[in-house]
Amino acid sequence: MSNVAIILGAGNSTRMKADKSKLLLQAGGMTVIERTVKTFSEIPVIDEIIVVCRESDLDSFEEVLGSYDVSYCFGGSTRQESVFNAVETIDDDCEYVIIHDGARPLITEDEILKTIDKAYEYGAAAVGVPVKDTIKVVDDDNIIVDTPDRSTLVSIRTPQIFKFDLYKKALELAKSQKKDFTDDCALIENYGEKVCAVTGDYGNIKITTPEDIAVAESILKARGELE
Known about the structure:
The radius of gyration is 18 Å and the shape is globular. Strand 2 (48-53), helix 2 (58-64) and strand 3 (71-74) form a beta-alpha-beta unit. It has helices at 32-41, 58-64, 79-87, 109-122, 164-176, 184-190, 210-222; strands spanning 3-9, 48-53, 71-74, 96-101, 124-130, 137-138, 144-146, 154-163, 196-199. It is α/β, with parallel strands linked by helices. The protein is built from seven helices and nine strands, in the order E-H-E-H-E-H-E-H-E-E-E-E-H-H-E-H.
């Protein structure tokens, strides 16, 4: 099967409060984007990696990722547009598309492979973790109106993996409806298809704020990947 990974890295990194893309920051002696790409590049069943970035970051990304076999495309104004730009570059013989946030550099090979297996089985799968906190639903006045059963709640992360033809159809439907989704699972759900949630690792955090770099390095140390 032909599997193409899309690594999203075109965000503005506003909450990081840095003078460059957060994906170019160091986390345990390696930039965030390189650590992410390195993991995907070591999985034989992934045939191609497309990195989505801002045009202003392209030279820096190419310098950091020079030793990896990746291609690039530029992001759009939203996540959905960024994925669409990458999808437009993929050949029709692709069978599964693997979408991952470049800001999740601690994803493991085991999580990726488990999610690929479930995508093969169900046509759509995404990694997630059981919710630890009690979640409350509030109204417009911030008054609690409901408490969902925590045992039924999953915090969905990436990668999210879909049959390529299914994803393209779901994307076209959303465009025709003028809908823009920040989560690819929601895109597939909008098309009327089901997505299998695969239990992942709590260490698969997203680098968003400066504190997350320290947390990531702590996780790497706990895994024995950093002295």
